[in-house]
C-alpha cells in the first residue's frame, strides 16, 4: 500500500483556527488606524483654517472673515478681498483654495453663529463663532472642543 498525500481534517481545522485568531487581532488595529487618520486630518484642517483666519484678521484690521455684510466666511477665505473685506478688491487672498471637508461627517460648509457655541450639532462641517472668532469642527461633541 502506498501512503496517502494531503492534509487531514484536523490539520485544516488547526490552520483555520490560527487564521481566525490572527484576524481577530489584526482587524481592530486597522479600524483604530482609520480613526486616527481622520483625527489627524481634522487637526490639520483646523490648524490650517485657524492660521488663515489669523492672517485674514491681520490684513483686515482685526475683522473676522465674513464680517463684511456682503461677504460670507467662505467667500472671504476663498476669494480676493480689499482691506475692508469686500470681494471687489484684489489686495488680499485667497487664503484657501476651498474649504476642507470635515473627515468625520464629509461636510465642508460653515455655520456662522454669534452666541454661545453649539459646535457638535453635526449639521455642518465647521462652526465659526463670530463673537469670539472660535473655529471648530461640527461633527460631534468629541471633536467640537478641539
Description of the structure:
With 146 residues, the protein is mainly α. It has one domain. It contains three helices and three strands, in the order H-H-E-E-E-H. It is elongated, with a radius of gyration of 25 Å.
Give the helices and strands as they follow along the chain.
HHEEEH
Structural class by sheet pairing and helices:
mainly alpha
Radius of gyration: 25 Å
Tell me the helix content: 40-55%
Topology:
Layout: H1 9-59, H2 73-78, E1 110-113, E2 126-129, E3 135-137, H3 141-144
Parallel strand pairs: 1-2
Antiparallel strand pairs: 2-3
Would you kindly provide a brief summary of this structure?
The protein is mainly alpha-helical and 146 residues long. It has one domain (11-144).
Amino acid at each position: 500500500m502506498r501512503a496517502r498525500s494531503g492534509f487531514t481534517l484536523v490539520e485544516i481545522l488547526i490552520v483555520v483556527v490560527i487564521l481566525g485568531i490572527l484576524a481577530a487581532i489584526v482587524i481592530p488595529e486597522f479600524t483604530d488606524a482609520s480613526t486616527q487618520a481622520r483625527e489627524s486630518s481634522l487637526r490639520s484642517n483646523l490648524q490650517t483654517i485657524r492660521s488663515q483666519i489669523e492672517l485674514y484678521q491681520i490684513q483686515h484690521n482685526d475683522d473676522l472673515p465674513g464680517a463684511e455684510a456682503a461677504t460670507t466666511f467662505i467667500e472671504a477665505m476663498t476669494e480676493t478681498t480689499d482691506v475692508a473685506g469686500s470681494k471687489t478688491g484684489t489686495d488680499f487672498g485667497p487664503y484657501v483654495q476651498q474649504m476642507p471637508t470635515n473627515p468625520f461627517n464629509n461636510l465642508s460648509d460653515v455655520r456662522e453663529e454669534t452666541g454661545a457655541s453649539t459646535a457638535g450639532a453635526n449639521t455642518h462641517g465647521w462652526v465659526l463663532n463670530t463673537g469670539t472668532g472660535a473655529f471648530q469642527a461640527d461633527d460631534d461633541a468629541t471633536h467640537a472642543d478641539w
